[in-house]
Each structure stands twice: as structure tokens, then as C-alpha cells.
Amino acid sequence: MEALRLEGVGKRYGRKPVLQGVSLQVAPGEVYALAGPNGSGKTTLIRLVTGLAFPTEGRAFLLGEDVHQSPSARRHLGAVVEAPAAFYPYLTGRENLRLQAYLAGVREESRIGEVLARLRLLSVADQKVGSYSLGQRQRLGLAAAILHRPKVLVLDEPTSGLDPEGVELVHGLLRELSREGVAVLLSTHHLQEVSQYAHKVGILGGGRLLDEVALNGREVYRLEAHPPEGALALLKTLPQVAQARLQGGAILFEGNPEAALQALLQEGYRVKALYPERFDLLTYYQERVKHA
Amino acid sequence: MLRLFVFELYKLFRLRSVALGLLFAFLLPFLWALAPGLKEVYGLVLASGWQVVSLSLLAGMEFLFPFLVVMAASESLGSEVAQGTLKTLLLRPLPRSLLLLSKLFATLLYPFVLLGASFLGSLLAGLPHGLGPFFGGTGLGAGGFAGVGLLTPGEALKELLRAHLLAGAVLVPLAALALLYGTLFLSTTASALAAVATLLLMRLLVAFPALTPFLLTTYLDLHLRPEAAGLGLSLLLIYTLGFAFLAALLFERKDL
What we know:
- The complex is a heterodimer of chains A (292) and B (256).
- Chain A has 292 residues and is α/β, with parallel strands linked by helices.
- In chain A, 32% of the residues lie in helices and 30% in strands.
- Chain A has 2 domains: 4-214, Rossmann fold, CATH 3.40.50; 220-291, Alpha-Beta Plaits, CATH 3.30.70.
- Chain A has 9 helices and 14 strands.
- Chain A is elongated, with a radius of gyration of 22 Å.
- In chain A, 42% of the residues are buried.
- The model of chain A has no long low-confidence stretch (mean pLDDT 90).
- Chain B has a two-stranded antiparallel sheet with strand order 1-2.
- In chain B, α4 (49-83) crosses α8.
- Chain A: One of its GO terms (molecular function) is ATP hydrolysis activity.
């Protein structure tokens, strides 16, 4: 069963649709990154997934339970929906976590120390949150989110406001949680960073899920052929080739390179070069959003 | 649930409007005890410390106490929205109605704490005038401040306690009303203004005599009319339950 599942989720305010028909699934242990320009609906989607907002169409499930019908579905959920995360400024970090632990049904006091240590917050744990830096609050937010060992983690720009060490700490934590079987859905503008460990990227634009890009085991080939437009048109007709596109005078495609080469030579195209290339998520994203 | 309620109480008493309100309620009686124009305004020459207590209640219930209660109830939700902690709470597997109920119980307790602070401050401010038997009245019983003869401390205390409890009951639906607007607007200022505007509007409805017995504002002076407590308290309870029910209904499907 998917850890998180959205079925045609949409949200409109009055007549204005903010999100339309978004369907996606995140399996246990999978990291799903949501990317999209500002105003594309990422935060709205996160609010819908976490049950903070209600969809005007569709449904959201956490381990098979509808998050909007049953508040108890959120027992599986850990989330940070604001950057930096919000806490009571007059309580210490530890006291804030103690309150969160009570609300989440966590009885072990030692778990609070564990997550504080994991997020390198022990030295400020007994200081009032009002005196925390933005980065410390953001890390405390993550500590609160993982406090009850959730099976689904939903994070809105988790590295926002963090210094490079903090960013690395968060990425390391997410990798580790993913290996432990936690499903992670996060929104981000830092595609290069998350592409190191995300399994799938969903590209949002204009309130729609424009594309889903699977990053695992993805092999992309760079082809330099003349004339490139004709070669691209030919590749698009081949069943062994997927996602062919022009980029800076060359063609990037996925699929079978031998079949592609054979077809091009048969049709008389001049092939200058064909070699595997690391998938450039950022460029792909930029093109996908531009042509949306 | 109990721990949640205790935490809501803790948060409530950390609110600026609540801290200021309690301070004002405690200190204002000292001002009243020293006010030179009491005779001109209330026709009263202080004969006893007990009269300071009733004077503080009467003056406070004119506007200050209702306003403070409305502000506190509005801020109890509005401040959570402003600092983002409401979302943090609602991310937990907690029914929204339970959270709102805890907030409601905490805000419903506040009027009594506020009146308690006023009562305590008034007793202290009234000490120089003495708290023994006196010829006169508390302004809350027979004969007003002039009284009908000798009033013992026990009788005065009884009248004052009854009046404070009734005043507390009067303030309870106002807290529930402000919380209802709080769930609607998710803003301290907007909900406080809406609650005050509703009360002002209800006061205007006295022009419809058929409605008057059922208006919330008809019973805002219930502490002066204990004989109307039967119908008054029942209506105040109905208003409180009605506002609370509507608030829970709204909050259950409110986007955050």
C-alpha cells in the first residue's frame, strides 16, 4: 500500500482554481520532491496533504486513511508546513517538544533527547525558542516532525533558512529516514540538492502536476546529429526512445541508444557523437516549466 | 483532554490582553477608591470598603470587563494563527473540536478570574474605608448605595459574591461569541471588533420590544437584577452553547 496517495485533488478559492486534479503516490521509503515556480500550488498541495486545508475535489490518503475524514490518520504523519517552523516562543525547545510528544502520544522522555541530539540542538534545548535563530527553529521543526517516528513525512522547503551544515544535516536525515522506510514528500526550489537522493520529482505549474520524473536508474544520452530538428522528430517516433528533447543544439533522450543510432543512420542523418550523460534535473525542470 | 485544557489555560494567561486585563482589574479599584467625583457621578460617598468592591464591579461591567473578555477570547485563537502554532497543533492526530473545546473552557474561565482580580483589588483598595458593619448598601441590594439600615459584612459579602458570579455568567457568552468570530476570521482584531459590533447591534434591537426578552444584551446587567436570574441564566447558557456549537462547526472545516 502507498504511504501517501492523492486522487484528483483540487482546490479553488471562489472561482479561481489554485490546484487542479493532482494525483500522485509516494511509496514507503520513497522521497518525492515537489518542484515548481512560486504560485504553482506547492504550499497549497502540502496544506491539503496534511489536512490543514480541505480540497474542493479529490481525496488525500495517509496509509489508506482519508486525512480529511479521520484526524487519527495524522498519527502516521510528521510535517513541517512553514519555514521556519512555528513554536511557542516563551517555552524552551525541550518544552515545546514535550508538548508535541504529548499531542502525538509519545510517552518516552528519552525520545525528546534523541531527536534534539539528531538535529544538533542539545546545546540550546533549554533556551526559550524566542531566542533561537531561524535555522535552529527550522531544525526544531524537523525534530518535532520526527518525534513520534512517523511513516510519512511532509516538509515544505525543509532547508529554507539553513546554513550549509544545516542543509547537509537535513539531507542526511532525509536519506536515513528514507532508508528506514519513511515516505517523504517535500517541496523545494533546490533541485540539484534533492536530486542526489530523491526518487521522484513532481513538477507543478499553474496548479497542475505537469510531469513526474523518476530519478532512480535513469540513463540519459546526449546525441549530436545533423540536422538536429529532423533527428529529434525521428527519435520521437521510435518506441525504444523516451523523453527526447533538444538542448543547446544537441538531443537528450532516454531509452535504447543502439536502436536510436541505427534508425538515424538508416535515414541518412550525420551522427557526430552519442554518449551517456548524467540526467540534468534542473535543466529539465526549467524547460518543462517554460513550455507548460 | 485535561492536560490540553491546562495548557490552554497556561497559554491564555500568557496573552498580553489577559495580563493587562488582570492588571487593570486589580488596580482600577484603587483609582475608584480615590476618585474625587464619585458623589457627582454615582451620588455616593464611600462609607465602607464593600462599596469600593461593588463600585468597581458596576464601573467595570459598563464596558471594560466585556471588552477585556472579548479581547482575550479573540486573542486566544488569533495569537496562535499569527505565530503559526495553530497549524503545528492541528498537524497532530487531534480532533479540531477537542482543541476548540479546550480553548473554549479556558476562555470561559477567564471572566471569573478577571472578576476575582477585581474583587481582590477592590477589597484591598477598600481596606482604608473599613470592612466592618456599616449604615448603607452595596448598591447591589435593597436601597442601592443608601441601603436600608445596618449592613453586616456577611450580608455585604453575600451580595457581592452573588453579583460577581452573575457578572461572570454574563461575560461567558461574550467569550463564546468572540471565539466564534475568531474561528471565522482567524484574526484577533477582526474577531474582537465583530463581537463588539454584534453587541452594539443587539443593543439597537431594543426598538423591537418582542425581541428584547431574548436578546443577549438585555441581560448584560443581570448582576444588578438577580430576580431575573432564572430566565437570564438559561438564555445566557443557550447563547453560550449556541455560539460554541457554531464555532466548532466552522472550525471543523476551516482552511488553515
